[in-house]
Design a protein that fits this description.
Elements lengths: L2 H9 L2 H27 L2 H10 L1 H10 L3 H22 L4 H22 L8 H4 L7 H20 L1 H9 L1 H6 L4 H18 L1 H12 L2 H9 L3 H26 L3 H33 L1
């Protein structure tokens, strides 16, 4: 099969064109946030919020509103619960996140098991971007593009907040506002990614690109570029593989990201070992 035919054939179908575009936008936005989460050490927070939205999705289905509305409400609820418990106990934040997200996720699983539905709610867990509607596709593209623009426009403020919040507070930056603004943007991104990769796999989308880029550079602007490239390429390639091999799109995207991370890790390890042995050889 010629390369041009390989690339153009899937794009003849509207559902595939939507899948590629949505996957690329989701990948780019998650990659940008991933860099900040890695820098801040908040990888588990993305995990917590993504799991906590499941009850909201089920409730949204029951009352007939868009899934993203219910998911966003429970994402904010999880953030508030984590903050409330943290401010009133001596329990460490990572333990609080684990308690909150597992409890809400378990509630969602219980609700799914009790709901008789003509809609396969398990798609929320693993995503189904090939079946995304036109309205949902445009919503995802529009909202996540806006999130990316906001983060990039205020990246210096978010960077200082993530890197040195004490310094940020000492120079008069509104730390509390920045903190909750970042959490809201994270919640919007997670809820907007549900139909692409689902609740389970969005965790990897929010961790792997930034981690891969962090292995390659310590300069944040370069880290952002590498993460976006890795994530977008993985998203597009994953969508193509899912078309030709009839496999899960979200699974293909995340698997490719994981393979890229492992390849970079092995390369870095080999180069590091080579540098250690060079003086001995001389």
């Amino acid at each position: 099969m010629e390369i041009f035919q390989f690339i153009l054939e899937p794009l003849q179908y509207p559902f595939m064109l939507k899948a590629v575009l949505v996957s690329a936008v989701v990948g780019a936005t998650c990659a940008i946030l991933s860099c900040f989460l890695i820098l801040k050490g908040w990888s588990l927070l993305g995990d917590a919020i993504s799991h906590a939205v499941l009850p909201g999705v089920v409730i949204a289905y029951l009352i007939g509103i868009p899934f993203s509305v219910g998911a966003f409400f429970f994402a904010l609820l999880a953030v508030l619960m984590i903050g409330l418990i943290k401010n009133n106990t001596k329990i460490k934040e990572d333990a609080i996140m684990g308690i909150v997200f597992t409890t809400l996720f378990a509630l969602g699983l219980i609700m799914i098991s009790r709901v008789t539905s003509t809609v396969d709610l398990t798609h929320v867990l693993f995503g189904y971007v090939l079946g995304i509607s036109d309205l949902a596709a445009w919503y995802t593209i529009g909202v996540l593009t806006l999130v990316s623009i906001i983060i990039l426009a205020f990246r210096r403020s978010f960077l200082i907040f993530c890197f040195d919040p004490t310094h940020a507070q000492s120079v008069g930056m509104p730390i509390r506002f920045i903190h909750y603004a970042f959490l809201v943007l994270l919640a919007i991104t997670i809820t907007g990614s549900l139909q692409t990769v689902g609740i389970i796999l969005v965790i990897a989308m929010l961790i792997t690109p930034g981690s891969t880029a962090f292995l390659l550079t310590k300069k944040f602007s370069t880290m952002l570029k590498i993460a976006v490239v890795v994530s977008v390429v993985s998203s597009v390639v994953g969508a193509y593989i899912s078309y030709y091999k009839d496999i899960s799109t979200g699974g293909a995207i995340v698997f490719i990201q994981g393979c890229i991370f492992l390849a970079v890790f092995l390369y870095q390890t080999m180069m590091s070992n080579k540098k250690k042995t060079e003086p001995l050889l001389s």
